[in-house]
Design brief:
The complex is a heterodimer of chains A (442) and B (334).
Chain A: E1 22-24, E2 30-34, E3 44-45, E4 52-53, E5 58-61, E6 70-71, E7 76-81, E8 84-85, E9 91-92, E10 94-99, H1 122-131, H2 144-147, E11 158-163, H3 172-179, H4 181-195, E12 200-205, H5 209-219, E13 225-230, H6 239-247, E14 262-266, H7 267-279, E15 285-291, E16 299-304, H8 309-316, E17 324-329, E18 336-337, E19 351-356, H9 357-360, H10 373-377, H11 384-392, H12 396-401, H13 412-416, H14 423-441
Helix pairs in contact in A: 1-4, 3-5, 4-7, 11-14
Chain B: H1 18-40, H2 42-67, H3 77-87, H4 95-111, H5 124-135, H6 137-140, E1 143-144, E2 158-159, H7 162-168, H8 173-176, H9 180-185, H10 197-209, H11 216-235, E3 239-243, E4 246-250, H12 255-260, H13 264-271, H14 282-302, H15 309-318, H16 320-326
Antiparallel strand pairs in B: 1-2, 3-4
Helix pairs in contact in B: 1-2, 1-3, 1-10, 2-3, 2-4, 3-4, 3-5, 4-5, 5-15, 10-13, 11-13, 11-14, 14-15
The chains are: A alpha/beta (442), B mainly alpha (334).
Chain lengths: 442, 334
Amino acid sequence: MKTFKMGGVHPEENKISNDAAIEVMPVPAQMVVLMNQHLGAPATPIVQKGDKVKVGQLIGEAQAFMCANVHSPVSGTVLKVEPCKDAFGLAKPAVYINVEGDEWMETIDRTPDIKRECTLEPKQIVDKLKEMGIVGLGGATFPAHIKYNVPEGKKAEYLIINAAECEPYLTSDYRVMMEHAEEVCIGVSILRKALGVPNAYIGIESNKPQAIAKMQDMAKQFEGIVVEPLKVKYPQGAEKQLINAVTGRKVPSGKLPIDVGCVVSNLGTAFAVYEAIQKNKPLIENILTVTGKKLPSQHNCLVRIGTTYNDIIKHTIGVLPATTGKVISGGTMMGKAVVNLDAPTVKGNSSVLVMDENEARRNPETACIRCGKCMHACPMGLEPYMFSVLVKNNRIEEAKEHNILDCIECGCCFFSCPANKPLTDEIRLGKNKVRAMMAAKK
Amino acid sequence: MNLLNISGSPHVHSDESTKKIMWRVNMALIPALLVAIAYFGISALLISVISVLSCMLFQWLIEKYILKVPSTVCDGSAIVTGLLLAFNVPATASMMWIVVIGALVAIGVGKMAFGGLGKNPFNPALVGRVFLLISFPVQMTTWPDISKVQFFGLDTVTGPTPLGMLKERGAEALDNLPEVWDMFLGGIGGSFGEVSALAILLGTAFLLWKKVISWHIPVAFIGTAAIFSCILWLVNPIHVEAVDGVNQLVGYIDPLTTILTGGIMLGACFMATDMVTSPMAKSGQLIFGVGCGLLTVIIRTWGAYPEGVSFAILLMNSVTPLINRWCKPQRFAC
């Protein structure tokens, strides 16, 4: 079975919400829609206080190059347009909407029929992705219309769909495969058409045999879709590692996947693409896993993007257990700890992961014993222990020479360190210092 | 509503710790200790206990009164040092006080003087052992004759070690060499923890299984020693020859005897693999192991001492930073 060649770890999988079918969460009474839900510049709000909006109506327009449209996930009246603190405590421009009813735009096809035929030309597909505000749902939220607009002189040869779901706990992609295999395959076919590549590869880790079987079955009905089972190893879903696992190619330092002829999209993105292209539905809903070892129940929920963490918690589990230590948006390896539970969710969110006090505790740091485990775990072939020393001593130039910027922050080094050194934290700090130094030199 | 913790990712840990690693090493040393007690009697146990307790005491004292840092005695590394130091001395009564001096040097000079665990360039147990070898040459090379050991007796009848006999080049040495099977099980003279290849291999298998060590250093070390001695042996196998009318041993010993006698097994599996003082990259570990193997055979064959494992490892320890500089991990896509 294929996998990436270098480094990697195998954290406890904890896919305890695997069997929870996707449930639709009711629309909350008030909604805050952030204008900055993607990589790049925030969208520009085009509504004002008092405006009536419908579900799926454009409320934030992408005016910069690296930007994506934002649509209203609810119908109602705009209360105000002012900054709101996001889940990590940073103020972002936002539109507040008082929810009234649930009136959708007429253009959106809400029938349950599955539409296979797509007559759009590649250029039209990319334009529509832009119109519908589609971004990568694997976590980086890279605007899809930029990714699928292959630059002059470069040629896409592989489309790779990331369904590895290598992060512990997360099961939303798994549920989408189990419940919407056909739609996903249609979405993949559309993306394949947009790129003009002969084959699309769907990489799924072998700990999801049912999803592999289901997708393989479905892929038979489509042209050019190959399901690629992958050996379970974290970070299989990291872009460079997935490309390496599926194609054997390696994206050089500082280059993009397209430089080796690859385009990678998340499985959730393929589903969103189906809905956008075939059903005219903008990206206004997310599938989130609500999970945690100490929770009374496990959930996979379809929520309107912008629903707050507190609303989701209230609807699914009622209240957080008293012993909650951390709430994480994303998986345990690369997810971010949520600061503000009143914040709205955004595009690309994949989970509300509730960790127990004991699970969230970090063990005390001890002396480095030069065991080299961090180095052997690093999927990028770096020397994390060295960065730790260099960054602590502010030797930023040397950290750059040792290629600190190659780090993908997957967390394998810290995960495997017997001395419990917070290597990933130190490297993150170092990368910021290196970038600041490079900016100052310009 | 209680406050939430926040931190950077990752939010989980493999639960691996220095303490676990050290305790696994200690467990892996138990078979060798049991064999030593079986062959050398209670004195092997006493020396081990004295050595371990002294190492722990010295570390505690130095951390508390000199370095003034929180004690790390519980992490088990002082016990590893204590056991390895004990394993490298003969099981004689005088060792019961000499080993305390060895423990002071091992912990004080070998480890704490550099700042404690993780910062020492040399294997502490070997620093202590070599200090004792140079300071107490007679006691450190007085070996009990295992055929005359009484289990609870502390008086020992001295006997030879295979390497000692061969070094003296007496013609009768060849006939007195123990059987290969005895060398494998441990029924030979020598430092009490190093005699049984079987017990050491059992412990090593445990360490490999638990991924505390990788195969690179032991295989490179033992393999190089075997190949190098095999070449010498093929060129001029050991035999008795009359030199100036006196029968003497001439030539080089066979590879099997080379790797089963002396400290190669213990050194290659437990001391050269010390994480702190060996290279981190697998390629560096191979270089390190090859260097240890070559130096060991060179010292044994042409040096003044019959045994060279300690010196070989210490010499290679000294070039570990250089090896680490040369042997970088392969960067992704480079």
